[in-house]
Amino acid sequence: MAEFTMELNDEQKEVRDWLHGFAADVIRPAAAEWDEREETPWPVIQEAAKVGIYSLDFYAQQYFDPTGLGIPMAMEELFWGDAGIALSIVGTGLAAVGVLANGTEEQIGTWIPQMYGDANDVKVAAFCSSEPDAGSDVASMRTRAVYDEAKDEWVLNGTKTWATNGGIANVHVVVAVVDAELGSKGHASFIVPPNTPGLSQGQKFKKHGIRASHTAEVVLENVRVPGSCLLGGKEKLDQRLARARERAKTGGERVKNAAMATFEASRPAVGAMAVGTARAAYEVALDYAKTREQFGRPIIDNQGVAFQLADMRTSIDAARLLVWRASWMAINGKQFTAAEGSMSKLFASETAKTVTAQAVQILGGNGYTREYPVERMHRDAAIYTIFEGTSEIQRLVIARTLSGMSIR
Ligand SMILES: Cc1cc2nc3c(=O)[nH]c(=O)nc-3n(C[C@H](O)[C@H](O)[C@H](O)COP(=O)(O)OP(=O)(O)OC[C@H]3O[C@@H](n4cnc5c(N)ncnc54)[C@H](O)[C@@H]3O)c2cc1C
């Protein structure tokens, strides 16, 4: 375990500065254009692939940083550049993590390279869990996967929604119900390989923010995938289902869901994205407040403006510290006894919303136009309190963890 220090080591500083350079030189200048186009910024993803920022290897390296700070640092810098473009770059990671967490070595080796493609032919992947009637309430999922034993194939039917890269992905990871009586314990994840008949893109959403990131429905109509596409394999699934049925029958103690632990560990990454957006808006506001003059002096000369900036920076730093604590806990295998992962996501995402709104206010009329980036950052920030569990769901998780009671 690394000794406690508040300072990044030389290697971390080098990676951070390199990512910051990419965010400043490649991502930020392209942000307004792709926000207006509301399209996946393929050329920027390709640039990221060329320099090594769009690959599993890069994120795996960051993940295994023993301090836990590799991933939050990377997220903060990329999302500082622009949230929509950064999500297009890191969105594939969500599907890749789904395979890494549940897949066999063979599945990892087969599918993850196909999710990213290569610098000459970049690909993206999608993770499809949410449904029109199953957002926060994941257990009410309806998409079914039925095993056709004669052909050793799974048949998937249902409609997924809000899928980042849904329909344009080379590889889709789809969560489906295999045993409806077991609630979320009866879910399993499947790979849908490229060009599988029956999978199609439904509505593509026109969004408030992160408009460079593609979000769409994914329709599954009699989608047949080989048995080998069940993540983890059939034997493991059968064993897991048998255990869940036994517990349901005997009313045995609810074993802490492994998925919950994974969420606790992954939520700080979303918190770090929010810190990146908040910091970007704060920096623009600070510069503006120092140069914009009214009543014969810079507007920062008024405590009303200066104190807002002081509060903005204080919340951003507090958010980062919560994110770093939870990330450090995750990599060091610490128990999240107070839902520290959820805490970091909750605080950082709410901070991003508040700070970007304050930045718009400090820029006055200019803040309200698309001539200045804070307008876009404010729209982008709203997503952090919604995806990967809304703020209300984070509060629910924290309150349940603290109290041990099933608060509704
Ligand atoms: C841009 C974008 C990208 C996304 N990407 C993906 C993706 O790649 N893959 C994927 O699977 N999903 C994705 N999602 C889905 C996202 O995770 C869901 O939108 C989110 O979980 C909320 O679900 P919902 O939209 O159905 O809201 P609902 O669950 O309907 O919630 C609506 C409101 O009710 C509140 N609420 C619900 N239940 C409770 C409760 N028990 N107590 C208090 N308040 C409650 C919520 O907090 C919220 O304010 C994405 C969403 C967006 C917008």
UniProtKB/TrEMBL annotation:
This is Cyclohexanecarboxyl-CoA dehydrogenase. Its cofactor is FAD. Belongs to the acyl-CoA dehydrogenase family. GO terms for molecular function: acyl-CoA dehydrogenase activity; flavin adenine dinucleotide binding. Residues 126-223 form the Acyl-CoA oxidase/dehydrogenase middle domain. Residues 258-402 form the Acyl-CoA dehydrogenase/oxidase C-terminal domain. It comes from Streptomyces sviceus (strain ATCC 29083 / DSM 924 / JCM 4929 / NBRC 13980 / NCIMB 11184 / NRRL 5439 / UC 5370). Keywords: FAD, Flavoprotein, Oxidoreductase. Residues 9-115 form the Acyl-CoA dehydrogenase/oxidase N-terminal domain. PANTHER family: ACYL-COA DEHYDROGENASE, ISOVALERYL-COA DEHYDROGENASE, MITOCHONDRIAL-RELATED. The keyword Repressor does not apply. The keyword Lyase does not apply. It comes from the Bacteria.
